[in-house]
Amino acid sequence: MPIPPVTHFRVPLFQLLGDGVERPLHEAANALADVFKLAEEERSAVLPSGYPVVRHRTGWAGFHLRKAGLVDDSKRGILCIREERKKVLATKPTGLSYTFLGTLFKGRDEFLAELRQHLTALLLIFEKRCISFSHGWTKKTSSSVVGVL
Questions:
Q1: Alpha-carbon Rg of the chain, whole angstroms?
Q2: How far is residue 129 CA from its own chain's centroid?
Q3: Is 26 buried (19+), middle (13-18) or exposed (0-12) by CB count in 10 A?
Q4: 97 and 65 in contact (C-beta within 8 Å)?
Q5: Which terminus of the chain has fewer Cβ atoms in its 10 Å neighbourhood, N or C?
Q6: Which one, of 94, 104, 149, 145, lies nearest residue 123 by Cα?
Q7: What's residue 7's pLDDT?
Q8: Do residues 69 and 104 make contact, with C-beta atoms less than 8 angstroms apart?
Q9: How far is the C-alpha of 139 from the C-alpha of 78, rounded, in Å?
């Protein structure tokens, strides 16, 4: 079985943490490798940077769960379910989509507003430079890019 994408790591990681035990990232990654029944070759696969693929995907899944407030983020590299979020686990989720996680994300609206501000500022700088080089960048293009957020 090939190593699943990071989106497939979220639910098993959330379920693994459901017992309330704090787990280091490497321990959670090893447990998920067992859940996915990965072969030794897949377990030892590394990214071009040399970082283990399974640990990398576990880390990103943990990041998504932390941003949604499902997992405690008070200790670096340690994953633990937040006590009040065990209710979500009790619903036995079959998937934790970006949309669902976005509804839980603490400060989501403030984050998006700040992101829009930064993107608008960058687009204005880019727009000025493109206009000065006559690349055809228009205000309509800028507003459509910001409108995506």
A1: 20
A2: 33
A3: middle
A4: no
A5: N
A6: 145
A7: 87
A8: yes
A9: 45
Residue indicated by tokens 């377990």: 43
Alpha-carbon span 71 to 104, nearest angstrom? 11
CA distance 113 to 95: 27
Going residue by residue through the chain, which has 149 residues, state the pLDDT in tens, using 9 for 90 and above.
689 988 899 999 988 998 888 999 999 999 999 999 999 999 999 999 999 999 999 999 998 888 878 888 778 888 888 776 777 777 777 777 766 766 666 566 666 676 677 778 777 776 666 655 445 545 555 455 445 44
List of residues 6+ apart from 60 with CB closer than 8 A: 6, 9
pTM of the model: 0.65
DSSP at 50: S
